Description:
The chain is α/β, with parallel strands linked by helices. 42% of the residues lie in helices and 14% in strands. It contains 14 helices and 13 strands. Helix 6 (133-138) links the parallel strand 3 (122-127) and strand 4 (143-148). The N and C termini lie far apart (49 Å).
Amino acid sequence: MKYASLTNRIQPADVKQNDPWEVHAIASQRLADGEDIIMLSIGQEADEVTPEVIVASAISSLSNGDHHYTDVNGTPELRASIAHYHNGLTGQACTADNCTAYAGAQNALFATAQVLLEAGDEVIVSEPYYTTYLATFGASGATVVSIPVTRDNNYQLNTHDIAKAVNEKTQAIVLNSPNNPMGTCYSADEFKVLVELCIEHRIWLILDAVYLDIVDVDLKDLPHSLPGAQEILITIGSLSKSHRMTGWRMGWVVSPPDVAAHLANLSMCMHYGLPPFIMKAAVTAINDAGHTPKLVRDTLSRRRQLAAPILAEIRGATLHDSGQGMFMLIDVTALGVSAYTFSMSLLDEYQVAALPCDGFGQAGNMLVRVGLCVDDEKLETACRKIVQCVERFKKDS
């Protein structure tokens, strides 16, 4: 039987690399089987739940009979709330006409790729990139061109390298800021270069900003108010991290109105509207649980202060820490093993699940992502075991 060529483009990882989620999947199964595994391999706070006011809103919506079809691009109330939230977060003026609701940021990214990219196009991403980027943008038929950051440049974005990669086939540049897995927030100067580049070459700048509301970033360090940005900038947002709603699947696209119109057409034939009770809960999250992102930010900051001194004891590997956000990174290059090998040993011998960044592109092959997403006691224990695992590899090298 024949399969569409799409099935090759949506493989979860480059066939030359390990499945980026293999360690996490094995760890999750062992945890389900009753093993005492500390899960640092996924970006959600395992010890926290969605605020009660949001849950109550969804229950009330269901009880009141919100069981029917909805606007395919999101209810007007939700889109207006997203516009207001986005304005406060970025300083960019927008209205409901700029906003399209989706079942999570991943869905929003995929839809954006479908309406902007096609076979023959190129899309530029910074590497390491989030694990799904190759499939998300490649599914459209476009070629993904990755521009790696390097250890020698302290893993900082090189806008000159991106500019050199732009050609007549380039249709979009994708930035993830704050970056996953690096945690990097790009600067005003970097954004200015890229916005001007996109305007000059008439290409899109797609900003995956799902971690933006749980870090401290000055509005002047964002691209949204730069001259001409309104015409080329598309921002992906979500409530998953900021409001502890990973399982609710609520995200959005903020874009020029003509892009939003195309997204609505795609939504019409793709999901035909989101569940009304989820959208009602999202409105409540934005309007009545505005304190939650700061709670998340403060919790992660406290955990970073706990983890950093312990991981700083590592000898034989290098701790890379952006100073904020949900993750820290360990560079295992000096140990002479890949991130995958280290992470599997960490799981098998020390019962700690961290995420090898092999699936984030070649630039991630020696990086291990450590999530600050368990309670303080578990995090402290896990960090000490990571130090022990490094020491074990160091002795064997």
